[in-house]
Amino acid sequence: MASARAVAELELMLGMRAGEEPRAPRGVDASAREVVNNVLALRQAVTVLHDSPAVTPEDIDSLQRALMVGTDQAEGAGSVRRVQNWVGGSGLSPHGAEFVPPPPSEVPALMDDLARFISEPHPLPLVQAALTHAQFETIHPYTDGNGRTGRALIHTVLARQGLAVGHVLPISMSLLAHAREYIAGLNAYRYEGDASDPAALVGVDGWIRVFLAATRDAVAESRRFTVELAAMRTTWDARLASFREKQKRRGLPRKDSAVVRLMEQLPGVPVVTARAAQSLLSVSFVAAKSALEELAGAGIVQVKEVERGTRAFMATDVLDLINSSERRLTYQRWDFSALDPSA
């Protein structure tokens, strides 16, 4: 798994190369490349698609294309498959596969139906998100990137329904940390028979319970992470005040100063250059550079050279919190009994 630091550094380098043909810098870990693509696609899912009057199959194609940038499968991304695919088993034939999706001739109509479902208002947004993900994974419309695209659609649904707008809950991370339950839930959803059969309803219920368990952990972890960020910010304020007092300056700068505004941005952009800070704050390059150097002097950010002649400033405290959050989700055990309505 890519570390938070590797991901943040790669995202920074990609931002520095805006306007160039998307490609991963030399020596970049493939898992970091994949995670950054996920981050960029999720931003698209919770911003662009949140504001769209309706989600279309072409919008979903665009998400998948964003996820495949810079990978070996980038060519041809953004188009539904024209061949039969399958999950598990041999790469030569679907014999012995764990799951065989619908034939390619049925995919366009199924994607139209799914896009309409995503666009509809729903009284139970979490159920809508759960069904959207499971149905997308069952259609398996692309030759690659289906899992990542399906997980991005979770956040599209939540944002469109007014939940976690502008933010991404770590639901995907929780699902992937519990791969056995995740796969079992999807397999239960894929009941072969009449949708009204009791066994089919039990399968759907089983999948929704898996999804709700992941969501419950994601919400709890997000709350804990928010508390930890607030404590970290208090520590930063103390470091900055101490640094400035040693320089015979007043304890803390004004709230609208570049250095304070930059501290507010660091949790979302933990690796930044002076040029990036200039853009983030809409200030001069000199002001951005001065703010970063002040934060470095206070020990709030650390300096690293990421490209020849370009220094990055890293908020390692934030990166450490992110890694700790990932570990907690990975080792969190699920208690399905707490999701029983009769409990």
Automatic annotation (TrEMBL):
ATP binds at residues 144-151. SUPFAM superfamilies: Fic-like (SSF140931). Coiled coil: none annotated. InterPro entries: Fido (IPR003812), Fido-like_dom_sf (IPR036597), Fido_containing (IPR040198). Pfam families: Fic. Residues 55-213 form the Fido domain. Keywords: ATP-binding, Nucleotide-binding. The keyword Zinc-finger does not apply. The keyword ATP-binding applies. This is Fic family protein. It comes from Streptomyces kaniharaensis. The lineage of its organism: Bacteria, Bacillati, Actinomycetota, Actinomycetes, Kitasatosporales.
